[in-house]
Amino acid sequence: MDLILYAIPFFFLLILLEFAYGMVRGRNTYRINDTINSLSMGSLSRLQALVILGFSGAIYEWVVVHFQLQQLPDNQAWVWVSCFVFYDFAYYWKHRFGHEVALFWGSHVAHHQSEDFNLGTALRQTSIDFYGFLFYLPFYALGYPAEVLFTVVSLNLIYQFWVHTEHIPKLGPLEWIMVTPSNHRVHHGRNKIYVDKNYGGVFIFWDRLFGTFQDELDNEPVYFGLRKPLNSWNPLWANVHVYWRLILDTLNAPGLLNKLRLPFKPPGWQPDGTVTRCKQKALDKDLSLKFDPRISSFARVYTFAQFLVTVGFSLYILLNANTLSYALVSLAVLFLTYSLFVHGRWMEGREDAIYLEVLRLLVLATGMQLLTTDPSALIITAAYVFCSLALVLWNRQTGKLETAHEGNGIL
Q1: Contact 277, 290 (CB under 8 A)
Q2: Cα separation of 288 and 87, whole Å?
Q3: How many CB atoms are closer than 10 A to CB 57?
Q4: Within a 10 A sphere around the Cβ of 184, how many other Cβ atoms?
Q5: What is the pTM of this model?
Q6: pLDDT tens string for the chain (411 positions)?
Q7: In whole angstroms, what is the distance from residue 39 CA to residue 49 CA?
Q8: Which terminal CB of the chain, N or C, has fewer other CB atoms within 10 Å?
Q9: Sequence-ordered list of residues with C-beta below 8 angstroms from that of 33, at least 6 positions apart, any chain
Q10: Burial of 28 (0-12, 13-18, 19+ CB in 10 A)
Q11: Which helix (H) or strand (E) holds 245?
Q12: 277: how many CB neighbours lie within 10 A of its CB?
């Protein structure tokens, strides 16, 4: 059972509570642009799963049918407990490969792009996890039922949500056994001493056992994000930018052997005498710098409001996907993906954001006319499109978006 969908409302509630707590304590860890981008990535990850249907489940059925595996009982506590522990062990290695192998880093990098660290960051997930199913195969071979495995996977991810916060200090002896906010802050750090450490999902003792543990140091405050920053709020580019540059580096690598080796080497590895095609430069000494484009107050408020509408539409599609046709779900996912892209353009202060927004609204209005005859849906859509267009055109007349890439961006 996939419990993630049921947990989403609680995730949002806890995000609001953390934001409120931070404001009351005078230590807010949220920026509106970074938070919207993280939640956009999370929404996109869940939405694409509706279109790319059940690949790992299909692999499971094939293995079971062709190898006639004996299933373990799903009503025994030892089956659930052992699956939970074994899966976290498998997750440790999946996570470690996701950092230490360039091909897999391209998939996992999305989760580490945020330069803030809060519960919203936990929802920042990749949309191209193409290799995770490989770590399910041992469980199929051992006979763990699918409902046990996928429930355990969900519980593992749900546990990881709460450790994405700056507000919880070290937790004493628990730090030796469990993944906690403190040792997970280390994992998200871009300080050299913290990079590629603390891979555990639930249990931190895997890192202690395999030599990848790093304690959070009092004299080394954690700075979050990538050493080569993304510097973009585009959720599509966030998912593919490593692969684009990996393709360029592979084409540029001399000799067939080097071309074959490069994707399986650590990120940034280059054959002798070659230079990466990556145009982004590693951070200088000031790790505290954050990507924070300066945008108009209108763009900030308008984008936030539109993002709330997009999230609401996304939740509706996720909750009702089973009652809708595959074609309709696919069209909705495409529109929502484009919407998230446009929201990113607004937050970057791009001059084309207005034109992309007008196109988005016209596509929505036209699509609803073609796809439904429900009067209520058509009236609501027409009102939404009319009000949004009126605001955009009013802003077009009264001022232009600011494009300087500086500002505070505080929510």
Answers
A1: no
A2: 35
A3: 13
A4: 22
A5: 0.90
A6: 678 888 999 999 999 999 999 999 999 999 999 999 999 999 999 998 888 765 666 676 777 777 767 889 999 999 999 999 999 999 999 999 999 999 999 999 999 999 999 999 999 999 999 888 889 888 988 889 989 999 999 999 999 999 999 999 999 999 999 999 999 999 999 999 999 999 999 999 999 999 999 999 999 999 999 999 999 999 999 999 999 999 999 999 999 999 999 999 999 898 887 777 665 555 456 788 899 999 999 999 999 999 999 999 999 999 999 999 999 999 999 999 999 999 999 999 999 999 999 999 999 999 999 998 999 999 999 999 999 999 999 988 776 544 444 444 444
A7: 16
A8: N
A9: 233, 292, 293, 295, 347, 409
A10: middle
A11: helix 235-252
A12: 15
- CA pseudo-torsion sign 402, 406, 410, 411: positive
DSSP 8-class letter at 53: -
- Cβ–Cβ < 8 Å for 156, 173: no
CA–chain centroid gap for 129, Å, is 11
Residue with tokens 């998230």: 340
Task: Quote the tokens at residue 98.
Answer: 């996701």
Count of residues making up the chain: 411
Q: Report the amino acid identity of residue 21.
A: Y
Contact 102, 95 (CB under 8 A): no
- Which tokens hold the place of 304? 């936030």
What ranges do the domains of the chain cover?
A: 4-23+53-210, 297-398
Where does residue 81 rank: exposed (0-12), middle (13-18), buried (19+ CB within 10 A)?
exposed
Q: Which two tokens stand for residue 392?
A: 């955009």
Q: How far is CA 112 from CA 25, 182, 271, 283, in A?
A: 26, 16, 26, 15
Judge whether 138 and 58 are in contact, CB under 8 Å: no
